[in-house]
Specification:
By secondary structure, the chain is α/β, with parallel strands linked by helices. Helix content is 36%, strand content 22%.
C-alpha cells in the first residue's frame, strides 16, 4: 500500500472516528485499515490516533496530519484532472445526497443527460430526509431544503440556488368529508398532517405569511410522519392538510385531480435551496460539473428569495 492510499484511509478513519466504518466506506478489510494506520505512524514517528475498544480520537499531531492530508489529497485530485481536455475525460466517483422528492421526481429522471458522454464517472446517490453529515459520510455535495441552522455545517460552503414556493394540499376525499376551508378561521374545524424530523418533538402547526411576518396556527391532527413520502401518502389517504414545496409530483397530482390546492393566500414561507460542499481550496471538476447541472435543472422550480412565486 502506497503512502497516498494510506493517507486516504487515515482521512476516512479520522472523519468517521471508526476503523470498522472506514473499512465499510472504502470497501476494504478492517485489517487493511489497521495496517495502513500503523505504517503511517511508523513512517511519521508519531501517534496519530488514540484508540480504545469503543473510541477513536485524533491526537494533536493527528489533527495536524489530517488537515494537511485533506489539502494534499485535494491537490492530487485536481492535478489528475487539470490536463483533461474534454468532458468525457472526467472520471472518478461522485457521492451526493438529495431530498427524496427532488431525487425521485426531478433529478434522477434527468440523470441520463448528465452522464451522457461521461463514461468514466460513477455517481452514488443518497436520498433521505435525514440531514447527513457531509464530511463524516464522505459526500462530495449535498442539497439542503430549508434554513442552514446546524452548527456542524458552519465550516461548509453553501451555494444558494433559490427558493421553493410552498402550497397547501388536501385530497378530494378529505374535502368531500370536511368541506373546503376558505379562511384561517375555518381551519379550526380541519385537520393537519404533522411532519417532524424526530418523533417526540412538538408539532409546529399550520404555517403562513401575513404581511411579511411568519405566523403559526395550532391545528389538531391524528397522524404524524417523519419523511416526505409518508407525508404525501397520508394526504392522499385523506388524513388532512399538508404544506409542501411545489416540485414535480405535487404538480402532477394536482393536474390529475388527486390533490387539491387550498388557501393560496395563506402559504408557508418559501424554503431556501442550497448545495453544500466541503470548505477546501480546490473543488474537483466532476463536482463543479454536477453542481452546475443541478442548478440548471432546478431553476424552473425555484423563485428568487423573498418572492411569492406563481
Amino acid at each position: 500500500m502506497n503512502q497516498l492510499e494510506a493517507m486516504q484511509i487515515y482521512v476516512r478513519v479520522a472523519e468517521l472516528a471508526s476503523f470498522t466504518q472506514a473499512a465499510d466506506s472504502l470497501g476494504l478489510p478492517k485489517a487493511s485499515i489497521s495496517t495502513a494506520i500503523k505504517q503511517l505512524e511508523s513512517l511519521l514517528g508519531t501517534r496519530l490516533l488514540n484508540r480504545t475498544t469503543r473510541t477513536v480520537q485524533m491526537t494533536q499531531d493527528g489533527v495536524l496530519f489530517y488537515e494537511r492530508s485533506k489539502d494534499m489529497l485535494a491537490d492530487m485530485d485536481e492535478l489528475q484532472t487539470m490536463f483533461q481536455q474534454g468532458e468525457g475525460e472526467i472520471s472518478g466517483r461522485l457521492r451526493i445526497d438529495l431530498p427524496i422528492g427532488v431525487a425521485r421526481y426531478i433529478l434522477i429522471p434527468r440523470l441520463p443527460e448528465f452522464l451522457q458522454g461521461l463514461p468514466k464517472l460513477e455517481v452514488e446517490i443518497s436520498s433521505t430526509d435525514r440531514r447527513v453529515d457531509l464530511v463524516r459520510e464522505g459526500f462530495d455535495c449535498v442539497m439542503r431544503i430549508g434554513a442552514l441552522s446546524s452548527l456542524g455545517e458552519s465550516a461548509l460552503i453553501a451555494r444558494q440556488l433559490g427558493e421553493l414556493r410552498q402550497i397547501n394540499c388536501v385530497s378530494p376525499d378529505y374535502l368531500a368529508r370536511f368541506g373546503t376551508p376558505q379562511s384561517l378561521d375555518d381551519l379550526r374545524q380541519h385537520r393537519l398532517i404533522h411532519y417532524t424530523a424526530n418523533f417526540g418533538g412538538k408539532p409546529v402547526g399550520f404555517e403562513y405569511v401575513d404581511n411579511g411576518q411568519n405566523k403559526t396556527l395550532k391545528m389538531t391532527g391524528s397522524i404524524t410522519v417523519n419523511n416526505s413520502d409518508a407525508y404525501q401518502a397520508a394526504c392522499l389517504a385523506g388524513f388532512g392538510i399538508i404544506q409542501v414545496p411545489v416540485i414535480g409530483m405535487q404538480r402532477e397530482l394536482i393536474a390529475a385531480g388527486r390533490l387539491v390546492e387550498i388557501l393560496p393566500a395563506y402559504t408557508a414561507q418559501a424554503m431556501p435551496v442550497s448545495l453544500l460542499y466541503a470548505n477546501r481550496r480546490h473543488l474537483p471538476k466532476r463536482t463543479q460539473r454536477l453542481m452546475n447541472w443541478i442548478a440548471e435543472v432546478m431553476a424552473p422550480y425555484l423563485v428568487s428569495p423573498g418572492s411569492r412565486g406563481t
